Amino acid sequence: MWVKAFDILLDRMKEDGFPFNRLVCISGAGQQHGSVYWKKGTKEVLKNLTEKASLHEQLQNGFSIPDSPIWMDASTTKNCRELEDKVGGPLKLAEITGSRGFERYTGNQIMKISQTRPSEYEITERISLVSSFAASLLIGDYAPIDLSDGSGMNLLDITTKKWSPKCLQACGSDLSSKLGDMVSSKQIIGSVSQFLIGRYNFNPSCKVVAFTGDNPASLAGVAPKLGDAIISLGSSDTVFSWLSRQTAELEGHIFVNPIDSDTYMSLVCFKNGSLTRERIKNECAEGSWDKFSDYLKNTPMGNNGNIGIYFDVMEIQPLAQGIFHFNKSNEKVSSFPHDVEVRAVIESQMIARKMYMEMRGMHVGPDTRILATGGASLNKAILQVISDVFGAPVFVSDIPNSAALGSCYRAKHGLDGCEFTDVVRSHPQPECVAVPAEGARQIYKEMTVRYKALEKTLANNSRVDSRT
Ligand code: ADP
Question: What does the radius of gyration of the chain's CA atoms come to, in whole angstroms?
């Protein structure tokens, strides 16, 4: 499906008369953690693609595992514990790789495949991340994994910037050769393939810079300053920032920074983001974002003490699932009126975003710039709640597609070999769209204490449930 999507994209651009011959460099981004399993012999197929047929026709039999596991897969808890045990515990794994064992992380996914599908694993020639897979289609060869997206695998030693031998050994035999070498995120990894030159009239000298994960690319796309807090409101929500050094923590993640591989970025991801907001928009606001926004504007900060917790799918932190409604006395109630439900989902999501961001060592004060990106950053009413909950001003750039813009910046960064600050010199200054309302600080301070306690009970209960 992904290969066919790539064909369709290029075909449509060609139909539109896109000037492929004017491109000088391409980079890109892929959803983090997903993995692609190329079958033995496919390297040769990639190198000898004929322009007379589409990629999906030629790569039909190119994969040892036809369906790629992606970030939403949470089936590898056993593998996570096994990996943590083998390297000396969860904190040790976090110290080496930037994260304790997480279900979606690629090393744990690979371990599951190597244990449960040994014959498919055996005939796998190369394992790519979604990002390096897409870059492979451009260069007509296996593309290396970059350090930043590679940090989302529980396999990379983020201090030495090399695969961790202990982690590799725990996750699968001969894994080092199946993963190939790593490169810095600004490395030029080759030129576009003969296939692209012949079929789409790409410029033969067009270079390709390593692709990275969508989150690292988003960081580049907002052209951040040290100390900014970035909140990305996509299908899942993520909060991240630029750190000068790494610290081992059990919650959240540290990645090698895509802009400067001597520094790091921290990231906390929440699975229940836009898709949950969208469900509530459909159920409570007749499918209209305008109506959803009106409900937000017309309900009071603090929602008269009502708190809802919405984990439609198993959340990452805490590991809990379900929808819960509590009144101002912390008693469970079966439902909320529609307008209360709308405010409850946004307030509880944003309280959790701030709470975990601070646990990960990112301090948020009244002078912190909150840079909002992603689909829901178009919604000013949601941004006002973020500002109230975080107690800090919220900024947005005109360009919501920060991962795509960040990929363009990274292409230029790699091609020109200049400082990143020079690349983003003409980046539009983000506009301040919300400042905290009076009284917000006290309301959300109290609400956060209650939210924390309620969330803790749910997480404890769900741990009991999963054991029984
Ligand atoms: P991703 O790239 O992770 O798929 P995007 O950053 O493109 O996601 O965001 C897509 C999401 O944006 C959709 O799921 C939708 O719910 C949300 N979205 C789009 N418009 C609005 C809006 N006006 N208000 C709130 N959310 C919105």
Answer: 23
